[in-house]
Amino acid sequence: MATTKQLGHVLVTGGAGLLGNNIVKLLRDRKVCSKLTVLDIKKPRDPFTDVDYKIADITDYDSLLALFKTLNVDAVIHTASPPSFLHSDAIFYKVNVEGTQSMVRASQETGVKAFVYTSSASVIHDTISDLINADETYPLIMGKDQPQYYSTTKAEAELYVLAANRTQAHPSFLTAAIRPSAMFGEGDIQACPPICTAYYQGQAKFQLGSNENLFDWTEISNVAHAHHLAVAALTITYERIKNGQPAPLDHEKVDGEAFIITNDTPTYFWDFPRSLWRELGHKGRAGETGDTPRHYNHVSHRTGVDLLVDPERTQLDTTACDIYLLHSILQHLKGKDEAWL
Questions:
Q1: I need a labelling partner for 320 at 20 to 30 A (CA). Which of 31, 60, 266, 311 fits?
Q2: Which InterPro entries match (predicted)?
């Protein structure tokens, strides 16, 4: 890993949450920032001693701008969002849309170079239709076609972020979006806890359907890795443009683009809960819905760790293709003499 500080001062919103905290940990471990700042509505229970924590409301533009003017931030990773299970349309819109708009504007007005937004893979899903080998060419689903208002607000915010890339008013402000699919990992409060609760309530012997639907889960460190790749690529692009070099071609650029991130290991949906239930002690018999004769793909919370330790690794068995794409673009942009990861 590189020991220099290529990314400069990086600010992570939502740094007290699962994804934000993992991004902060990853950037610390890789020693790629001159300074790390977390902006959230509260501090995490176990803050890092070498990270600066700021308490702020991202929907209050005036106070946010005043704070940004004191920080001299180079790059922003914007993960802050209410959980999708909150069921409050007003909060979804206020935080996801208005909060993101405030973050973009404050970043533009204070000379931030790179802005990476955490979107969601749900922005292309209507909750009904099958998504088979879906990619970024699929249209965003919003409004009356989107039953989940959370996803509508994430899509609207994503559009705003990407539209802010290299504008006439702010030509050196570069943006990208990361769309994770079904995140899970150590410390998560959305995926694993309900599955464990079902086990403790005696529901591990029941399933809906024949377990033939594939589902893309994404281990949290893979998502953090993707955010690092994106912000590094934006930073390199900024330096290229500043130094008078041509901007990346369409097929190699990251700025202005969205990337779907998964483990690249689609799993039969019920196999994931069963893998957790086994760890909790479930003993299903062959033929029961709690266990089937089919070979299981055991999903570990350490999925993808080898690639994260060695980003030069080309094997794609545990990490999403778009992580590989981002890394390939990054290698192409930086040349061979400089280690950015």
A1: 31
A2: 3Beta_OHSteriod_DH/Estase, NAD(P)-bd_dom_sf
**Pair of tokens at residue 122:** 């749900």
For 106, half-sphere exposure in the C-beta direction (CA atoms, 13 angstrom radius) is 28
Alpha carbon distance 139, 42 (integer Å): 35
Q: What is the pLDDT of residue 297?
A: 32
28 within domain boundaries: yes
**22: CATH:** 3.40.50.720
Going by their DSSP bridges, the two strands 35-40 and 52-55 should be labelled as parallel
pLDDT at 308 over 80: no
Query: At residue 329, what are phi and psi to the nearest 5 degrees?
Result: -60, -40
- How far is the first Cα of the chain from the last one, in angstroms, to the nearest whole number? 6
Q: What is the DSSP letter of 334?
A: H
Residue 192 and residue 120: Cα distance in Å, rounded? 18
**Is 273 among the domain residues?**
no
Q: What are the residues whose beta carbons fall under 8 Å from the beta carbon of 179, sequence distance 6 or more?
A: 119, 120, 121, 123, 124, 136, 158, 258, 259, 260, 261
In a domain, 328, yes or no: yes
Residues 6+ apart with CB under 8 A from 160: 97, 100, 101, 104
Q: How many domains does the chain have?
A: 1
Asked if 278 contacts 297 with a C-beta cutoff of 8 angstroms, the reply is no
Catalytic residue positions, numbered = 154
Q: Which residue has the higher pLDDT, 11 or 317?
A: 11
What residues make up the domain containing 241? 9-181+218-263+319-332
Separation of alpha carbons 187 and 27, rounded Å: 18
Separation of alpha carbons 308 and 221, rounded Å: 8
What is the DSSP code (8-state) at residue 244?
T
Distance CA 224, CA 217 (A): 14
